[in-house]
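Section 3.1: Structural characterization of target chains.
Under the original work plan, the team committed to producing a structural model for every single-chain target entering the pipeline before any wet-lab resources were allocated. The record below documents one such target. The sequence was received from the expression subgroup and is listed exactly as submitted; it comprises 311 residues.
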Amino acid sequence: MRNGRCQGRRCSAGAGNRSGMAYVLVLLLVLLVSSLGFAFAFGVRTHTLAATGRRDALQAAYLAESAANHAMWRLLNDPVPLPNMAISVAASSDDASQPGWYTDAVIDETEIGLGEKWMVGLRFTGVAISNGTAIASVRVQFMASASESGDTDIMIFGEAADDAQTFERQGRNLSRRNRTAVSVSWHDIPVWQKDNFYETPDLSGIIEEIINRPGWQSGNALVLLFRSDNPGGKRLFWSYDKGTATPARLLIAAGDTHTMGSAVYIMHSLAGGRYGYKVRRHTDATFATIATVGAAGDSVAHQSYVLYVKR
C-alpha cells in the first residue's frame, strides 16, 4: 500500500513545493502587473509630455499665422496719419522767374511776380513723403510783397522728375522742363494786400503724380511751375532773397495712408502665448515682406510672408 498512501514527510514536501511554486507564480504575476502598471504610467506621462510639446508647436505656428494676418490687415486697412508739413524755399536758386519763352531765368530777385512774369518756378527740398502715399491736400503759400489787384489767370504744373534740380540762369531753364500731365487752373485770384499770406488751390493731384513716379524717394526735391495765361494782372510775393520775409512755402495737410512705414515692429502678448511681426514696405509700395514670430511655451515658430498689393 506504499503506492496508495502518502508518507507524511514526502506529502509535506510535495505540498510545500507546490505552495512555493504557487507563491513564486503569484509574486511573478504581481511583479508583471506592477511592471505593466509602471510602464503604463510612464507611457501616459511620456505621451502627455509629447502631446504638450506638439500643442506648443502648433500654438506657436498658429500665433505666427495670426501675426501675419494682423500685419496684412493693418497694411491694407489701418490708416497711418501723415504729419502736417510746411516746406519753405531754402535757397536763392530755388525760386526763379522767366520773362518769356526764350529768355534767361532770373534767380536773385527779392520779389517775384505771378502774372507779371511768363513763368515762375519754385523748388522744395526734403519732401518727406513716401512713394505712393495718398495726400489730403497741398497748397503753396505766398507772402505778398505789394498790394495788387487786376484779373489774372495762372496755370500750375509740376516738373515730371524724380528729384528736381535747382534753377540755373541759362535760357529756358524753367520752360524746357518736362511738365506733369496733371495741372491746376488758378482763376479769380483775390486782391492781395502787402505782407499778407495767400494760398493756391489744392495741388495734391500734381504732387501725387510726382511721388508716384517709380524713381521718387522720400526726401527728394520737387518743382512747381506757374505759367501766366492772362498777364493783365499780377501778384507779387517775397522771394528767398528778401531775407527778412517768409519765402513761398509748400503746405501739406495731414492725410492718411493705408501703407505702414518701413521696419514696423509690433509684439502682442496673449494668455496662450505671444505673437509679433515686423513689416518691411518696399520702395514701389506694391508689396511688403512680413516677418512673423509666434511663441507658446518653449516652442517658437518663425514665418515669412510677402504681401502683394493689387492696384
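Residues 80-257 form one domain.
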